[in-house]
Amino acid sequence: MTSPTSVEEGPEHRARSVGIGRAHAKAILLGEHAVVYGAPALAVPIPQLTATASAGRSAEAPDGAGSQGGLSFTMTGSLSRTMVTHVSDGLRRLTAAFKAHTGVTDEAHLDVIVDAAVPPGRGLGSSAATSRAIVLALAGLFERELSDDAVFDLVQTAENVAHGRASGVDAMAVGADAPLRFQAGRAHPLPIGCDAMLVVADSGTAGSTKEAVGLLRAGFERAGRKDRFLDRATELVDTAASALASGRPELLGAQLTEYHELLRVARLSTGPIDAMVAAALDAGSLGAKITGGGLGGCMIALARPEHARNVTVRLHETGAAQTWVVPLRRRTDHG
């Protein structure tokens, strides 16, 4: 891990007046839940959905519920007051961790504003994207150089507070510029041997990762269930990665649908998402599945470029609240 750049603080040195940080959403292709137990997962960045944070100094602490502990936090969008309060609590912990890591001793009141287009509770990495954007904004404000590992560690600290035991795939994927394979804290860019479209559809209902994790863990209590789940998940992920690299979209799509069945049998899908999966397949999708923690949230469908519009239309007809199309473009470099 690279050490932070040393910056003297005091009257002779003033950090810049504002720092800006950016991150984006992600979708899990395959590997949900299994990745927490050390199995591999495949993730795709969604650059259309961004989180941008600005961090600046305030001459004096403003009044209001968002101001506490030397920090004022504002978040745009339609988040509930409860959710904003929860995020604010996490921000204070994240800021403290950032200062401890970088040696910042400045006690000036901070104003942090986050403009987040990543819908929360949908399995798209909203909390990780917000945390990464804030870390980068703080680094810019205090003129600290952070290694990739340091940024990951700080975001992962926030993720563990928000979700309990986080695998790290979200913390890594919200800063990635290409699809990646993640396992046990390490990530590698994925070669892509074909052009395809990934259609992401929001069911309109927030998922519950914590509830889903508990439900799956309860199912694992029966002898052999955990090993069977992890073995099957790993098999599907490995086959999907090979299919993506070799340009076999039909085989990749089949693995998506099989992984959905794995999660459906584990009772982690919902009726509306199952209906959207069926509609996507009927509309010409090569494969479809729930994505993220489950019990709500989003689903994804793999489509050839010429079929993406039809798949998208059918998903809206079936109840999708909103959709996004993510191109998967041929790339053979391994980064």
From TrEMBL:
<dbReference type="GO" id="GO:0004496">
    <property type="term" value="F:mevalonate kinase activity"/>
</dbReference>
<keyword id="KW-0547">Nucleotide-binding</keyword>
<dbReference type="InterPro" id="IPR006205">
    <property type="entry name" value="Mev_gal_kin"/>
</dbReference>
<dbReference type="InterPro" id="IPR036554">
    <property type="entry name" value="GHMP_kinase_C_sf"/>
</dbReference>
<keyword id="KW-0444">Lipid biosynthesis</keyword>
<dbReference type="InterPro" id="IPR013750">
    <property type="entry name" value="GHMP_kinase_C_dom"/>
</dbReference>
<dbReference type="InterPro" id="IPR020568">
    <property type="entry name" value="Ribosomal_Su5_D2-typ_SF"/>
</dbReference>
<keyword id="KW-0460">Magnesium</keyword>
<keyword id="KW-0963">Cytoplasm</keyword>
<dbReference type="InterPro" id="IPR014721">
    <property type="entry name" value="Ribsml_uS5_D2-typ_fold_subgr"/>
</dbReference>
<dbReference type="InterPro" id="IPR006203">
    <property type="entry name" value="GHMP_knse_ATP-bd_CS"/>
</dbReference>
<protein>
    <recommendedName>
        <fullName>mevalonate kinase</fullName>
        <ecNumber>2.7.1.36</ecNumber>
    </recommendedName>
</protein>
<dbReference type="InterPro" id="IPR006204">
    <property type="entry name" value="GHMP_kinase_N_dom"/>
</dbReference>
<dbReference type="Pfam" id="PF00288">
    <property type="entry name" value="GHMP_kinases_N"/>
</dbReference>
<keyword id="KW-0808">Transferase</keyword>
<keyword id="KW-0067">ATP-binding</keyword>
<comment type="similarity">
    <text>Belongs to the GHMP kinase family. Mevalonate kinase subfamily.</text>
</comment>
<dbReference type="Pfam" id="PF08544">
    <property type="entry name" value="GHMP_kinases_C"/>
</dbReference>
<feature type="domain" description="GHMP kinase C-terminal">
    <location>
        <begin position="241"/>
        <end position="319"/>
    </location>
</feature>
<comment type="pathway">
    <text>Isoprenoid biosynthesis; isopentenyl diphosphate biosynthesis via mevalonate pathway; isopentenyl diphosphate from (R)-mevalonate: step 1/3.</text>
</comment>
<keyword id="KW-0418">Kinase</keyword>
<feature type="domain" description="GHMP kinase N-terminal">
    <location>
        <begin position="96"/>
        <end position="173"/>
    </location>
</feature>
<keyword id="KW-0443">Lipid metabolism</keyword>
